[in-house]
Amino acid sequence: MEPLRIHEGLVYPLNRTNVDTDQIIPKQFLKRIERQGFGQFLFYNWRFHDDGEPREDFSLNDDKYKGASILVAGENFGCGSSREHAPWALEDYGFKVIIAPSFADIFYNNCFKNGLLPVTLNEETIQQLIKKAETERYEVTVNLEAQTVQDSEGMQESFDISSYQKEMLLNGWDEIAVTLNEADKIDQYEQNIVKY
Amino acid sequence: MDHPKTIIDKIWERHIVHQEQEKPDLLYIDLHLVHEVTSPQAFEGLRMKGRKVRRPDLTYATMDHNVPTIHRNVIKDEISKTQMETLKQNCEQFNIPLADIDHPDQGIVHVIGPQLGLTQPGKTIVCGDSHTSTHGAFGALAFGIGTSEVEHVLATQTIWQQKPKTLNVKVNGNLGKGVTAKDLILAIIAKHGVRFGTGYIIEYTGEVIRNLSMEGRMTICNMSIEAGARAGLISPDDTTIEYLRGKRHAPEGEAFDRAAEDWRSLATDEGAAYDATVEINAEEIEPQVSWGTNPSMCIPVSESVPDPENAATVNEKQAIERALDYMGLEPNQPISSVEIEHVFIGSCTNSRLSDLQRAAEIVRGKKVKDSVRAMVVPGSHNVKEAAEKEGLDVIFKQAGFEWRAAGCSMCLAMNDDVVPPGERCASTSNRNFEGRQGNGARTHLVSPEMAAAAAIEGRFTDVRQMGSAVLS
């Protein structure tokens, strides 16, 4: 996994609440057995007509958001299915950071395994970011080390993140390797399991 | 006595492998269930790093999401076929027991775990599937995980978890005639929203929960994730223990008695404290029908679709408008006036024997409306056989239902069981998200009884007004 420390990028505003993982990556694309290549299917039913033509009424298709790498959305982002294909699709499309007032638990955890940073900010700040990004080309800098989001006009907000998840992302660690360092403790636990 | 504890605290403490400051706990996993959709990348990850599956004996796999429910061996979609074959190869390579499409134990992963007695009180259970919360009905700590975590559990039989907060959902009173566990959980989510459980593990308590069968309890715990909670559970009692007695993977003889004693001791202690509590009055609950595009957008069958003009916030107004537009509904339209073209009785929420028995009682001797295509998809091969032994298949077929083989089917339409664009389905499944049952498909979540009634009438009907003698 690629480490993530500071990311500066273009904001794409998705002013919707309860965006579920069925919308992020519809089920017809879950049949692949690889981890890569899901970006082309991101938000598929919102982005494309049945014949595969891009929908003009979905703003991600707008040229002004080309190259966006920071997605800002409404509360409870990533709810529903546990499919890790959702962060795979977001990451493969080019997103590095997702900012929302709240996230669904499974999606939130899945992000960290894929070098994607979920940032929780208050509703008021989110609405300001969305308004800005809807009206102009808007870039922000997300600093994981300092736990801040800032823009060139002096906006600066801090966010909370657990130290464990922060370390994982900062270092791009392989979690399984970390756990296998504790293998003796797992052995010991297994020896003490009580059988009925 | 130690200070009183919840079942959540007791199970958690038993499973800590390693604990240190500033880190999540490393928890041991007792049962890892695997299916074809969320596992291929995990096995591939193991191969790339030369890692093994630590405990294949605590791992159990089946095929459910992609499997055809008709013409079982004709898998038209090449990619689905590859995914199923990949699971078979992975299970062979890593020595994991598999109930494949031809196996008598095949079925939806959350139906077969309990049915085989793999699901037991006090276990930690994970699966790459958000509806793993279902197994909480047995007093197990069961939750859905992503594919990276699947790989982690395969390699280490453990998972790093920050302990969630505890939420007591206490259901008082009694459910009325014709009001089911499905109506109860839909009504709870309608009242408290799709994220009131986020960051919590729910324990369902109260008289109503104690009086539910294991199958009803599974329906409740199944939809915990639709309230945002990764896990929802119910303290084990006599109902739990009697259900497990004699199941293939349950302990036998004296070992069963020792297990039962231990399971009883896991129940939440009198006076244990939760981080939050909500109380629900079951007496107020009517049969439910969802009208929108998330499970909280749900109303009693006697009511009308909401008007966005009455929304409390701008966000809510926009969400209602979007949902009405997608669903093709008008504000203030009575939900009982909505006509449907499809009925789906199935899914990990409502595909067990008692679900099919109750739906069959509604359709017995009646005919599915000409304009409706209705199907029953039993949750497992075993459920299908048990239902056929009772003649339920005949009742459904004579009424005009299609009687299918086991799988996830139209709950998420990964196989050929798809609702066409713009058409409407009364579904006993768990999610009414946009496109869930097919691109442009419109899903209305209901109980098996309400789905059966809708099949007969061609629109939503209060099941309590249809031959009430058969309602439990």
UniProtKB/TrEMBL annotation, chain A:
<dbReference type="InterPro" id="IPR050075">
    <property type="entry name" value="LeuD"/>
</dbReference>
<comment type="function">
    <text>Catalyzes the isomerization between 2-isopropylmalate and 3-isopropylmalate, via the formation of 2-isopropylmaleate.</text>
</comment>
<comment type="subunit">
    <text>Heterodimer of LeuC and LeuD.</text>
</comment>
<keyword id="KW-0100">Branched-chain amino acid biosynthesis</keyword>
<comment type="similarity">
    <text>Belongs to the LeuD family. LeuD type 1 subfamily.</text>
</comment>
<comment type="pathway">
    <text>Amino-acid biosynthesis; L-leucine biosynthesis; L-leucine from 3-methyl-2-oxobutanoate: step 2/4.</text>
</comment>
<keyword id="KW-0028">Amino-acid biosynthesis</keyword>
<dbReference type="InterPro" id="IPR033940">
    <property type="entry name" value="IPMI_Swivel"/>
</dbReference>
<keyword id="KW-0432">Leucine biosynthesis</keyword>
<dbReference type="InterPro" id="IPR015928">
    <property type="entry name" value="Aconitase/3IPM_dehydase_swvl"/>
</dbReference>
<dbReference type="InterPro" id="IPR004431">
    <property type="entry name" value="3-IsopropMal_deHydase_ssu"/>
</dbReference>
<dbReference type="InterPro" id="IPR000573">
    <property type="entry name" value="AconitaseA/IPMdHydase_ssu_swvl"/>
</dbReference>
<feature type="domain" description="Aconitase A/isopropylmalate dehydratase small subunit swivel">
    <location>
        <begin position="1"/>
        <end position="123"/>
    </location>
</feature>
<keyword id="KW-0456">Lyase</keyword>
<dbReference type="Pfam" id="PF00694">
    <property type="entry name" value="Aconitase_C"/>
</dbReference>
<protein>
    <recommendedName>
        <fullName>3-isopropylmalate dehydratase small subunit</fullName>
        <ecNumber>4.2.1.33</ecNumber>
    </recommendedName>
</protein>
From TrEMBL, chain B:
<keyword id="KW-0408">Iron</keyword>
<keyword id="KW-0004">4Fe-4S</keyword>
<keyword id="KW-0100">Branched-chain amino acid biosynthesis</keyword>
<keyword id="KW-0479">Metal-binding</keyword>
<keyword id="KW-0028">Amino-acid biosynthesis</keyword>
<feature type="domain" description="Aconitase/3-isopropylmalate dehydratase large subunit alpha/beta/alpha">
    <location>
        <begin position="9"/>
        <end position="458"/>
    </location>
</feature>
<keyword id="KW-0456">Lyase</keyword>
<comment type="subunit">
    <text>Heterodimer of LeuC and LeuD.</text>
</comment>
<dbReference type="InterPro" id="IPR050067">
    <property type="entry name" value="IPM_dehydratase_rel_enz"/>
</dbReference>
<keyword id="KW-0411">Iron-sulfur</keyword>
<feature type="binding site">
    <location>
        <position position="408"/>
    </location>
    <ligand>
        <name>[4Fe-4S] cluster</name>
    </ligand>
</feature>
<dbReference type="InterPro" id="IPR001030">
    <property type="entry name" value="Acoase/IPM_deHydtase_lsu_aba"/>
</dbReference>
<feature type="binding site">
    <location>
        <position position="348"/>
    </location>
    <ligand>
        <name>[4Fe-4S] cluster</name>
    </ligand>
</feature>
<dbReference type="InterPro" id="IPR018136">
    <property type="entry name" value="Aconitase_4Fe-4S_BS"/>
</dbReference>
<protein>
    <recommendedName>
        <fullName>3-isopropylmalate dehydratase large subunit</fullName>
        <ecNumber>4.2.1.33</ecNumber>
    </recommendedName>
</protein>
<dbReference type="InterPro" id="IPR015931">
    <property type="entry name" value="Acnase/IPM_dHydase_lsu_aba_1/3"/>
</dbReference>
<feature type="binding site">
    <location>
        <position position="411"/>
    </location>
    <ligand>
        <name>[4Fe-4S] cluster</name>
    </ligand>
</feature>
<comment type="function">
    <text>Catalyzes the isomerization between 2-isopropylmalate and 3-isopropylmalate, via the formation of 2-isopropylmaleate.</text>
</comment>
<dbReference type="InterPro" id="IPR036008">
    <property type="entry name" value="Aconitase_4Fe-4S_dom"/>
</dbReference>
<comment type="similarity">
    <text>Belongs to the aconitase/IPM isomerase family. LeuC type 1 subfamily.</text>
</comment>
<dbReference type="InterPro" id="IPR004430">
    <property type="entry name" value="3-IsopropMal_deHydase_lsu"/>
</dbReference>
<dbReference type="Pfam" id="PF00330">
    <property type="entry name" value="Aconitase"/>
</dbReference>
